[in-house]
Model the fold of this input.
Amino acid sequence: MAELKLSSLSEKSISRNPSGAEYASDRGFRGLALACGLAMMLLLLAILIIIGREAAPAISKYGLGFLTNAVWAPGRGEFGILAEIWGTLYSSILALIIAGFFGVSIAIFLTQDFLPPALAQVFRTIVEMLAAIPSVVYGLWGIFVVIPAIRPLANWLHEHFSFIPLFGTSFGGPGMAPAVIVLAIMVLPTVAAISQDAFRLIPYKVKEAAYGMGTTRWEAILKVMVPTAANGIFASLVLGFGRALGETMALAMIIGNANQISLSLFSPANTLASLLASTFPEAGQLEREALMFAALALLFITFIVNVAGTIIMSFAAKQQTT
Amino acid sequence: MSITADDISRAAIGARTAPSMRRSFTESRNLRSFLLTAFVWILAIIAAIPLFSVLYMLISQGGARLSLDLFTELPPAGFMQGGGFGNAIIGTLVMVGIGALIAIPVGVMGGVYLGAIAPDSKLSAGIRFVAKVLTGFPSILVGIFIFGLLVQAMGTFSALAGGVALAMGMLSTVMLTSEQAIRMVPQRMKDAATGIGCTSTQTVWKVVLPTALPGILTGVMLGIASAAGESAPLLFTALFSSFWLESLVEPTASLSILIYNFSGMPFPNQIQLAWSASLVLVLIVLVFNILSRLFGSRKV
Amino acid sequence: MSVNLSTPATTAAAVNPQYAISASIDKIFYGDFLAVRDAVIGVEKGKITGFIGPSGCGKSTVLRSLNRMNDLIPIFRLEGRVDFMGQDIYAKDIDPVSVRRHIGMVFQQPNPFSMSIFENVAFGLRLNRFKGNMHEQVERSLRRAGLWNEVKDKLKQNGLALSGGQQQRLCIARAIAIEPTVLLMDEPCSALDPIATRIVEELMLELKNDYSVAIVTHNMQQAQRVADITAFFSVDVSKGGRTGYLVEKGPTAEVFGNPREQLTREYVSGQFS
Done:
């Protein structure tokens, strides 16, 4: 190495070769940066390993029957999370339907020149602020605002349409309906933000082409812009779904934490995450082991959904920019 | 091609009648446009209602109780009047601080690796992918992970474990936004530094990081804001305490867990405190959010 | 539709039945910026009208105001009138969407939609609720755009997968599928290589049998090769701004061979650009 360095050509030159310390610090710095990058990988790996390890005793004790058993009875030492799996999927899907509908519409509203830029920025900030409110605050708001607000409508629906399974039970307060509403609000910013990005990635010339063909604004949006952004919109829905699956505190506060499988929007239910949050602090050894198995199930589901969403999103971005 | 079709179009050029191009509201496409536009307006306004409702409740319910006592007193037990959540504010700030101390250096250095040292390598693509996946990961799983890693080993819930859990949650945000900010630094600037004989470390320190600083700070502030509002990971790592923080290795209070605990209590005093704590928590989150916007707007 | 070659069936209000579009533009503004002044120009039926001039002379702006594409820019404002088949397309009660359905446009950058080749061409047909044989009309349009043989076996493939020159011909097929009255082309060859340019130019000469065409080009050879009538624009920088205006127009051979204005002479002989 040393032989390859240039020697100063003139006595007067200020230039000098980098010192040994400079080389060493350069190498050290790159190494450190690499280590920090790798820390990310390690973190994921460690999460998988540790949660897997914690869940191992329960896995060997209960086996796969754990996933198909709907009873959670610490007193009898009987544990199963079918009701929680049902509650997680049911609440997330309903929330996603609402949040997807609102989120994509708002993304259109904010990117397709409906508003002067300043006003669009105001709305964009409002949607971003929705994401900034902590989960527990939504939970508190859900208990004291959402539940009283929907009570009259829920009672009326149950009275007149109780033959529809959705309204089959009477409204007792905490339960699926308020949980879905709060969950939808919490997922909305994710869907809206990623969909907006998808719309913004569409080159201006595509819009020009649509208008040049004589489309109205809405024909351009529905027939050209939405299909062009379709992959990005899909990614926003998948990632929003991932968010909904793992949302914890707000749901633990308003879903009612009841171990039952019901189609009714008005009956209390439970999700994997809220089971963990509401039961864990006071759980005994046996129950804690079982909870770790539930955590592993949650990890498995959210991991798959998030990986799928991330892949779709990078695929969409690549496709749209070429 | 049929000759007749060709003839017709050739003839048509001279023979077209003037089309009506008048605006007509009753024409279906215009009516539909109007209805759809009205519809998205309504949706956008409905979506804004929750935010204003939350803010209204925070100010009316939480603001009503706002006083100095909140910041200097300890949480009251059931049936007791008065009290505050001074220990929870300290706990939140301490744990967010620990989280930031860990997440910022590791996240920014990781961002340097992804954005400046090996932007196009396979490894970087892998790290980036993992970071994106972890961004959407439920924070409760991070809490359980730290429970298994630290709490069980140390034999106690602690501020330290809480801080580490918050750090894990912030890490991916800080790393990805740092990378983006670093990538935004124009290549010509890096070329200039390299061309003058900087080692790659010197290029990063003297040119890339200073230029990317506003963008990096945006990510850091966003990470801190979301960590301050976190609750699920703390439930498994710091738990709660009704006393002042005395050491980093004992159960520690936080605003978010206080809100969670008090919201389920049947006592009006505790419910009021939960609202006040929410107001304080949202203000803390907003301060960091606004800071991130200020840094963001200064981006080059 | 009556098929009668001898009597052009425009309304009585038509300024000159020889023209599909006749525009007399006093001023075009972008906000406070005066972009174009004094452009009296027409698109003759069955002919190709070329717009030439140095960059910034407003030739594209004028072309885009002929089918109200400029309406996409909120600060755009036009003083004057643009008559299409006897109607002022800037009149208050005119729907710009309808205008664009009769006056088609091909853009500088090929801009097919991210959908199949077939759906790209069928787009306008579906938009206008075309009742006839969709497949036949798509094939006809692709044939006229000289693209049929290259794509007939891959109509389901995404339009974006084609080469640049093919994409531009696909855009032409898309524009002519709905049989517009006028076709506006805004530097359609500027993003294409010489071979693709050659093909598109030949195509334009074919198209003028069926449509009235206006083309903006910065390439004087191209104007000479394809345009029947040439309009030369220049840019006036005297008052500190950059305002485009029409210098002269006439049969292409005259504008290039024996121009009336000194400015035109200098431009076509390559003395400034």
Observations:
- Chain A has one domain: 61-321.
